[in-house]
């Protein structure tokens, strides 16, 4: 066990030394911090109202001044479902109070977004490169809502099996109006750090805060998310 531990320690130390030597040599030669452009694939999580969802995006940028890049993002929030809670709860309460109809509700809220902005890189070390950024664009929200029968009598006099999907029945009879897809203004701010791992390749870790000005029929206030993304980038 002691021999194995020694081998692991030597391997880790050798790898770290090689990484540091590479970063220093590459930076001294005009290096990765002075790249003219980049492309990065990122994934992570975002905490929204009452829920946490996945965040996937691809980002590309071009240098326009020393330490300044303009960038564009195309991304996808998997499900901001927590922001549907109020509208679904209100619908359930209304059906119970006005129709004596008991239902349970669920829904999903994926969002595809595209933003453009400015990233300022802050040379602090040959071994890593911090940055801050801000951008604005639009998010396309595609909510789905589903209601399952629990108790009472439907408007047509029927009593479905408990748990049966009655969304279409409620929509047809005008007791429920689904929230339709919409596009809303969005902005994002945050900061991160780049760490070189191979020639022209960097690891990217960032904190992101986003705010989406959703339609009032979906949410009484703008949708906000904050979380982390991690990815691998290539600098040209």
Notes on the structure:
With 236 residues, the chain is α+β, with helices and mostly antiparallel strands. It has two domains: 30 residues; 202 residues, Beta Barrel (Porin), CATH 2.40.160.20. The protein is built from three helices and ten strands; from the N terminus they run αβββαββββαβββ. It has an eight-stranded antiparallel β-barrel. A two-stranded antiparallel ribbon has the order 4-7. Strand 8 and strand 9 form a beta hairpin. The longest helix has 27 residues. The two termini are 45 Å apart. The N terminus is likely disordered.
Helices and strands, in order, run as HEEEHEEEEHEEE
Q: Could you say how many structural domains there are in total?
A: 2
3D shape: elongated
Please give the count of helices.
3
> How many strand elements?
10
What's the alpha carbon Rg, rounded to whole Å? 25 Å
Do you know the CATH topology of the largest domain? Porin
Give the structure's gist in a few sentences.
This protein has 236 residues and is α+β, with helices and mostly antiparallel strands. The chain is built from 3 helices and 10 strands; from the N terminus they run αβββαββββαβββ.
